[in-house]
Amino acid sequence: MQIIQDTYEKLSAQVTQRQNQAANNPTVEATVAQIIADVRQNGDAALKTYTQKFDNVTLDDFRVPQSVIDEAYDNCPKDLLDALKLAQKNITSYHEKEVTYGFMDAEQPGVVRGQKVLPLAAVGLYVPGGTAAYPSTILMSAIPAKIAGVAKIVMVTPPQPEGINPAVLTAAKLVGIDAIYQIGGAQAVAALAYGTNQIPQVDKIMGPGNIFVAIAKKQVFGQVDIDMIAGPSEIGIIADENADPKKIAADLLSQAEHDKLARPMLVTTSLAIAQATSQAVDDQLTTLPRQEIAQAAVDNQGFIAVVDNLDQAFDLMNQIAPEHLEIQVDEPMTYLNQIQNAGSVFLGANASEPLGDYLAGPNHILPTAGTARFFSPLGVDDFVKRIQYVQYTKNALAKEEKAITKLARIEGLEGHARAIESRF
């Protein structure tokens, strides 16, 4: 991996400089817009055409039969099912603590104010297909939605010639997905946003996907809500002179193997750790099954920065705002307050990032590309809406009449002022 040493100011400028995000690709934007328009106009017929074109599969009925889902669940190896159930337990116990409730305020005489918290009616989960299967993403998405009280959760996933991965079907049944549809890409996002005869319209679309899925989610936002526009995976690690280079390298590669555009990053106070980690990455790459993908990410997106002290390391990472942030230093909990921007934080040498991907309980659907500065991990709050309400007696309104009409007329809205005065 490239090792960067310079003045802190120059170092900061180098590592925080971001490439234009793929989701700003004008050619893909235009293609996705055309697909969405086609699905809106032609519904299931358009979905059938795109499924044949992009997935080489011909389908008349997109819904996966319940018998197929049941068979996958019944035949799931016990060790895998046990692992999924343990993950389900941990994710549930974590997200149950996120639940928020409405309130009613009657502190002022004659005035009642309040807020209702209601679940969304229906949400759609996009699960990628292809070379990798992501049952963990189903758990991370559906469990907080269920805790929030969402009544209907449907799932879309690209069709496969040999059928949907049984682990994906098992996870979907385990968490109570209501229906699974074999449809992927931008066309699946369009179907969820606008509805077709076969696929129901939802209120929110969540889940990762390729550039076409990301751009489609961006284009339908407003018609429906979305979780976020996720970019390639990122891991940032802060390490001191006592960290283990082999563990650091393994964690960097755990994210580099996701995507050629994944971003593995190490910021350390020790040149010796930097050099040893770079060598360990090279050594471990030789036996990694997804070597070609990880190598590209390491060579083109990764870096190791050497800084003077941990304060600089945290400042640098706060500028980057990584999706995943590992703190591999002595007494890591004492540095928690220095972290301002990150999706999910892993404290100490034993909190390896895959712990969060699968089992610990915190969500693994996280903001990327610096958006951790203002976005948060997926959680229960993402599946609820809030409705405000207010009630006034005439006496209570009279006390505030002049203030309201004054503000209305300052803004040039005479009708607003007269609406209040009409009560008197």
Automatic annotation (TrEMBL):
Residue spans crossing the bilayer: none
Cofactor(s) in the UniProt record: Zn(2+)
Residues that hold Zn(2+) according to the record: 255, 258, 357, 416
Enzyme Commission number(s): 1.1.1.23
Classification via Gene3D superfamilies: 1.20.5.1300, Nitrogenase molybdenum iron protein domain (3.40.50.1980)
Keyword Metal-binding attributed: yes
Binding site for substrate: 233, 255, 258, 324, 357, 411, 416
Amino-acid positions noted as binding NAD(+) in the UniProt annotation, renumbered to this chain: 126, 187, 210
Alphabetized UniProt keyword annotations: Amino-acid biosynthesis, Histidine biosynthesis, Metal-binding, NAD, Oxidoreductase, Zinc
The keyword NAD is annotated on this UniProt entry: yes
Record-level Gene Ontology MF annotations: histidinol dehydrogenase activity
Pathway membership: Amino-acid biosynthesis; L-histidine biosynthesis; L-histidine from 5-phospho-alpha-D-ribose 1-diphosphate: step 9/9
Source organism superkingdom: Bacteria
Cofactor binding remark: Binds 1 zinc ion per subunit.
Stated name of the protein: Histidinol dehydrogenase
